[in-house]
Amino acid sequence: MRIHKEGHTIIFVNFLIWAVIAGLCFIFCKNAVVNWVVVGVSLFMSLFMMWFFRVPVREAVFDDSLVISPGDGKVVNVKEVEENEYFGEKCLCISIFLTFFNVHITWFPIGGVVKYYKYHPGKYIFAFHPKSSEKNERTTIVMRTDSGNEMMFRQIAGIVARRVVCYAKENKYFAQTSEAGFIKFGSRLDVFLPLGTEVLVKKGDKVSGQTSVLAKF
Questions:
Q1: Selected catalytic residue, list 69, 132, 187, 212
Q2: Fewest 10 Å CB contacts: which of 54, 124, 171, 213?
Q3: Catalytic site residue 187?
Q4: Whole-prediction pTM value?
């Protein structure tokens, strides 16, 4: 299993903390049962952190006419919304909620040039709350394909997530399904598409980054 680069420091620090706790228990606690319970918890937490930052191996989909899911999770909304940050008009919005157990890597849904990028500091309310798209810490990325199709997506931090990492840079080309960043611990992704785009998912669907098709231009 390959570990994502965003997790290397966190995993190392987590391992050190639990190793110190387990060591102190063996030194100062004479109860063998308690000591081995602490060791078990320490091992579990270390393995879980490694699993959380796992990098899945997938056969990515490449098609200029398709919008691929930027992450793993569950579709919690498909609706028309007023998008005022970039488009200034009504758009279709597909919202994907990531639980603590999903892969938290994000990928570029289309291949193209980043026309707009902005990081927004913000709050950390529950990611499934409708206002999290406007209030929480988030990044906004707008991409344009070679054929002229534009779409926008947001990485949104949740109540547990405290850092959004994004690799997008304005005026730079990124391949479809290449890595766009990482959201650490629970989050949401919003995908904004022009009205008239054919949406191929519905509320309640589970999607996987790099492989699930959200829509067709």
A1: 187
A2: 171
A3: yes
A4: 0.87
